Amino acid sequence: MKLLSVFAALLATGTASAFTAAPPAFSVQRSSISKTVTSMADSEAEFYIDQDRRNLMNLILVGSAAVTVGGLAVPFIAFFVPPGAGGGGGGVSAKNALGDDLYAKAYLDSHPANDRNLAQGLKGDATYLIVKEDKTLESYGLNAVCTHLGCVVPWSAANNKFMCPCHGSQYAPDGHVVRGPAPLPLALAHCDTDENGKIILSPWTETDFRTGGKGWWN
What we know:
The chain is an alpha+beta fold. The chain has three helices and ten strands; from the N terminus they run H-H-E-H-E-E-E-E-E-E-E-E-E.
C-alpha cells in the first residue's frame, strides 16, 4: 500500500514538472540583441573619440607647417623688396648723430658748398642734406639707403657721386642710378626750414623729377 502511495507521488511530481513554463526564447534573443546594440554604441563612441583626436592632431600638424613655411617665406620675400624710404603724414626735424635738432643757419655755417652730409630723417633713416653752390640748402634730401640690398651709401666728393661699398652701385649727385646693380634711384624727401630755422624733412609725394614718374617709395 505504501509502495503505491510513493509511486503516485512521483507520478504527480513528474506531471507538474512537465507543465512548468520554460523561459521564453524571445527573452533570450532580446537580451542578446540589447548587448549587441550596446557593444556597437560603445564601438561608435570610441570611433568618434579617435576621429576627434585625429582631427586635432591634423590641425596641429598643419598649423606647425604653416608657421614654419611662413617664417621662412617672409624674410625670403622681403629680401627682394626695396627698403622703405621713410615717410609719414607730416614733416620731422632733421637731427644730428646725437639726436639734436639741426638749424639751417648753424648747419650752413659749418658745411661748405656742394657738401652732402648725413642727418637723421624720416622714420629715422639716414638722409643726405645737400648744400648748394650759393650756400643754401637744396629743396630735397636724399635717403641714403641703397635700393639694392639696403646698405647706407657714402658720398664720394672725389668722384662726385654716391658709391655703395657693398656691391658697387653708384648714384649721381641727385641720387639717380649711374651704375647697378641698384635698380632704383635714392628716395627723395622735401627739405625746408620752419619759422624757428629748424631743418624740416617731409615726405616727397610728387613726381620724381629724375625719372618723370611716380616715386617708387610712395
